Amino acid sequence: MKTNFERGQLNAQDDLNENFKEIEAALADDTFGISLSGGGLDKEAIMDGLTLRWGDIFSVDNERSRMNELFVISEDKKTLTILSDCLLRFDGRFRCQTTNGSFYAYLGMRVNGGGDVRVAGIAGNINWRNDISWHEIREFKANDKVTLVLGTNYKVTAGDAWGVDFVHISEVLKA
Fold first, then answer.
1. What's the pLDDT tens digit per position in 85-100?
2. 109, 117, 105: which is closest to 161 by C-alpha?
3. In which band, very low, low, confident or very high, does the pLDDT at 41 lie, cut at 50, 70 and 90?
4. CB 161 within 8 A of CB 129
5. What is the 3-class SS of the chain, one letter each residue?
6. Is 146 or 115 the better-scoring residue by pLDDT?
7. Most buried in the list 52, 76, 102, 155, measured by CB within 10 Å?
């Protein structure tokens, strides 16, 4: 025969086991998120239409993200290949560094070689380094190829501080 104390311990253990099951279920639904860094161009030719680099994986939000079942990055870091239908959110920083003058520079997102969407930009009498935050939510299909393309009237053979400093990519759900 069990004492009330022993019954209490067994009930507490059962409750604890249920809590662990709830935690495991919640972790299985973790939101996907990966941060990329180091996509900037330095001492490279800067011109309109240049395909920029995404960068390298710098951090992951959780274990689900570590497995990264949503995209792969090409060896040259210029193309994301989407692995399954998804809706992705991008938060990043685009930078451009010019001499003093009347210039424009924008960051375009291209899917499968077309369908450009301007995600960040600056124009006017700009000088020196400009950091532009950007945010985009876009729906993708499996096997889509996603690139970042520079639009600019600035041209130099060895530019400094251009490209994508970082971008955090997360999966979101459609409302």
1. 999 999 999 999 888 8
2. 105
3. confident
4. yes
5. CCCHHHHHHHHHHHHHHHHHHHHHHHHHCCCCEEEEEEEEECCEEECCCCEECCCEEEEECCHHHHHCCCEEECCCCCCEEECCCEEEEEEEEEEEEEEEEEEEEEEEEEECCEEEEEEEEEEEEEEEEEEEEEEEEEEECCCCEEEEEEEECCCEEEECCEEEEEEEEEECCCC
6. 146
7. 52
